[in-house]
Amino acid sequence: MSNEAFDDRYELREFAPGTDEQGAPDAATDAWMHAVGLGFHEPHPNDEVAALMAEAFVADRETWLGVHVRRPLPGSVDETWPAGTFAWFPKSLSWGDGQAVETQAISAVTVRPTERRRGILRRMMTHALERGVAEGYAVASLTASEGTIYRRFGFGCAIRERAVRVRRARALPFLAPTTGTVTVVTPEWLADGNARAVFDRFDARTPGSMKRNTSTWPIVTGLRNGDGEPAKDVRAAVHRPDGATDADAVDGYVTWRVKEGSGRDQDTVLEVVDLVYATDEAYLSLWEFLLSIDLNDVVSYKRSRLDDPIVAALGDNRAYDVDHEEDHVWLRVLDVPAVLASRPYAVDGSIVLAVSDTMGFAAGTYRLDVVDGRGTVTRTAADDSGEADVRLDVADLGALLIGSVSPVTLAAAGLVRATDPAAPVLLRAMLTPARAPHGITYF
């Protein structure tokens, strides 16, 4: 659809969320929130929760887009609500070595069904990415509600995750003893800075970890449910290493709730709300604790990484079942030299990448030289037609970026092209992280 046709029917408005003198969402913010709720089938929050949400949007420095129908029909929500919504805000992505890159995090993308296939999403995405480049972001990020939408805009799936279940009756004892002490605490104690301190340590050491939104913390610590209402059924526990006694020594925590089964064949399930660990010892000990809790049949965890060490630790590894696996973090490279220079590398070497990008932001041919684990990038051609060891689309560069996706695998899938099969092998060795990427942040 042409720009003229879009501009004739719609008005694109960029604005920052705000509140009125009473702390409630202002009129534009309230209308935008209604439109997002419609898109994701969510009820509009009550006044208290709406005020908390608006406060969090402001704290996270969000920028919003709304696409408004210029000539709404009488009685239609189009008179006040946008037909398309889009948000972005800064969110750091950890490389796992204590360093991070700031990403343009994208969220709340909706298009009303009555306005589909009229160019709304493309206009919002193009506008946002252009603004991202202008604001100096090297990469954009998102977590998707659907897995087929974003590749056409240059996003690649960089991290996948699993929803798993461990059956208690067959899980214990672990094959190796755990260490440290697990203590039950209140969600309020956890929320009073202690959870964030553990997460900061997890984030610094974990490739693919991303900082959390302001509104996430009351939910993961057990103070509120996902709808913003107070939670009444969440419990919490922390892990300390051997010999430690003070709060600063906490190196892991878990929050959970139990859902009782109904009927003879229904399991009672302990659902993990949040599980954050700064050490492998904390992760194992917290799992052992969860599997020791009586009056439930199964422990369910929806954020498991693909190489979960619990599989190896279990007394019977058949107690571990994968319910579902899906995409989690998607990345879109905007500045190839900047993002490749920001991350660490496992081995030294040189490789030339030809990157195609239909939107134009990252197109080019680039030489990556790694010395002592740090990379420098030289652009050798303005497009992807230059001499190169590896050729790939910008979406596949985003998929490879953290190191959880192998260029050898993408070569086998026909997405990475190389004359010499040794080139993807070298690139895989260079990109391999010290630890498995693990994203536990949604936005």
UniProtKB/TrEMBL annotation:
Keyword field: Acyltransferase, Transferase
Gene3D superfamilies for this protein: 3.40.630.30, SCP2 sterol-binding domain
Xref: CDD domains: NAT_SF
UniProt-listed Enzyme Commission number(s): 2.3.1.-
Pfam families, per database record: Acetyltransf_17, Acetyltransf_9, SCP2_2
One of the record's GO molecular function terms: acyltransferase activity
Domain of life: Bacteria
Domain Enhanced intracellular survival protein as annotated: residue spans: 336-438
InterPro entries the UniProt entry points to: Acetyltransf_17 (IPR041380), Acetyltransferase_Eis (IPR051554), Acyl_CoA_acyltransferase (IPR016181), Eis_dom (IPR025559), NAcTrfase_Eis (IPR022902), SCP2_sterol-bd_dom_sf (IPR036527)
Catalytic residue list: Y150 (proton donor), F443 (proton acceptor)
Annotated Eis-like acetyltransferase domain residues: 208-321
Class of enzymatic activity (EC top level): transferase
Positions that bind acetyl-CoA: V109, T110, V111, R117, R118, G119, I120, L121, R122, S145, E146
Family membership noted in the UniProt record: Belongs to the acetyltransferase Eis family.
HAMAP family on file: Eis (MF_01812)
PANTHER family for this protein: N-ACETYLTRANSFERASE EIS
Assembly with partners or alone: Homohexamer; trimer of dimers.
Protein name from the UniProt record: GNAT family N-acetyltransferase
Naturally occurring in which organism (per UniProt): Curtobacterium citreum
